[in-house]
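Side project, low priority. Logging it here so it doesn't get lost.
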Amino acid sequence: MKNMKKALIMAIGGAALMGAASAQAAVSPANVPNQFDYAGPNVTSVAFSGTTTLVKGIPLTCELKLVGDLVTSALPDVSIVVKDGSVTGSALCLAVNLNLDPSDSTTWWTATKDETALPNDADALNPITNITFTNLNISTPLGPCSGTISPVSFRNGDTDVSDPSVFSFSNAAISSGGCTVTGDLASQPNGDANIW
């Protein structure tokens, strides 16, 4: 196994793709194989948001927010679990329902990557590519879109890991219903989530 560090740097107080909790800091030894290292609060939910365009026959540009957890208990696999979210904007945007329920795990979107797909200390700014989220069940004004969405990528920042982290959807296809999504969801100004 390659030596690597999976780091989370978080300070959250809002909504959208990965998390916040207490204010204590803890750092475990760096560069230990299969060791999850983090600095910041305990991981529960991190917030990501941004402008995205959903295409289902017609383009619909809306503000998308997703909230979720980073799950490292099954190392060497790391999972991203989206538990909640919202779509805002025009009246058509408000008619989009992500059908996510934070209290019902059967509605959550999930994606899992093995440690070999994650960057290491030396290349922490390299993106994690070909992420596939499963279990989507989205209602739109023109009908449902469900199944998986891919490809999605994640980067820890543009020039430094302290920059906002970003999930990128580049014409990402939802497997059933003929929908695609394009846009970036960035970690909120009061929090950041980094994985390496």
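Brief comment: The first helix runs from residue 91 to 94.
Revisit when time allows.
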